[in-house]
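Entry 14. Ran structure prediction on the chain below.
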Amino acid sequence: MSVAVACLAARAAGPPGKAEVRATFQEYAGHFVQPDGRVVDRAGGGITTSEGQSYAMLRAVWVGDRDTFQQTRSWMEANLQAGNSGALPAWKWGQREDGSWGVLDPNPASDADVIIAYALLLGSKRFDDPSMRTQALALLDALWTSEIVTVADRLVLLPGPWAANQPAIKVNPSYSLPFAYRVFAQVEPERPWMQLVDDTYWLLDAVTPEGGLPPDWAWLDAVTGAVVPPPDGHPVETRYGFEAMRIPWMLAAEVRWYDEARARALLGRLDHLRVRWHRDGSLPAVIEADGSAGRDYDYLGMYGALLPAWGIVAPDDAKGLYNEVILAARTVHGWGPADDYYAHNWVWFGSALWSNKTGRGPTPIGRFDGRP
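Output, structure tokens:
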């Protein structure tokens, strides 16, 4: 029986409960987070990334695990921020060629920077720790200065400072997190974070063709701001792959937490993924710009990111996806291959958002509706 047919038969089960959401985070932390707070990418040669630290911090605040939150925060400050809690963290840390351990690439990555600031603001409320808010505000100042630019009157989040001042501005649509910008607007009303929300939806609309998919990477003309073809040598980066797969999750969060009509409309434009899944029984891990499969296998993390999106547009299919695909991949470390930290994170994020066990988290100084 195909996955799609099996899922149609699996209508009864609902989202995971609080115990499952908590347990799967603790399993993840036990396998991927060292006692000192370093998140290890076991499948990536034992490196640590700012993305990995950010995911652990956000998950920890959502489940109320202050110890893990503080451990990962402290390790990040000591090792990725060189002791400066307000500096944008280096994105890559690991073993050097001479055998020593330390920063391998000092450039920051803005997706992690946004999530870290967001997690700190949520943590400042949940853990009653003003130092987290102070650190978040310092990070936001650095982020705004180094990673946000104006292109033809629109605000654009760069993937990192290295992308500035280029003839064509390289952007990663999946780095955009409007729900975080809304929180930043509440703590920094003097900065136009809400314009960045609006301009993010312009970008997502511009790079998502009807019947197509948003790309992993896109380029904007530095003068006009128009979306332009990729430079020579970069065509594969227009795929819907391991970067862009996160976008449905972000859109689902915007609908769930803010009832954002633009997010709902974009989810509708991606519904052909669900139709394809029904037709073929699976989705390729990478989908080329022309719709052909870029890989001959599927990827559990993609299904995790789609879960809350389908929970909005097709609740019965979300139940089937969870029952027949995600639960079927359940292991003692989370889901799927033991060392695939990326898939484990995105299945957890998807399951937690679908079940409404993340907490609403729209304001770090207000309520946490539905938190565990």
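The beta strands are 48-49, 92-95, 101-105, 148-151, 154-157, 168-171, 218-221, 227-228, 330-331, 334-335. Will compare against last week's run tomorrow.
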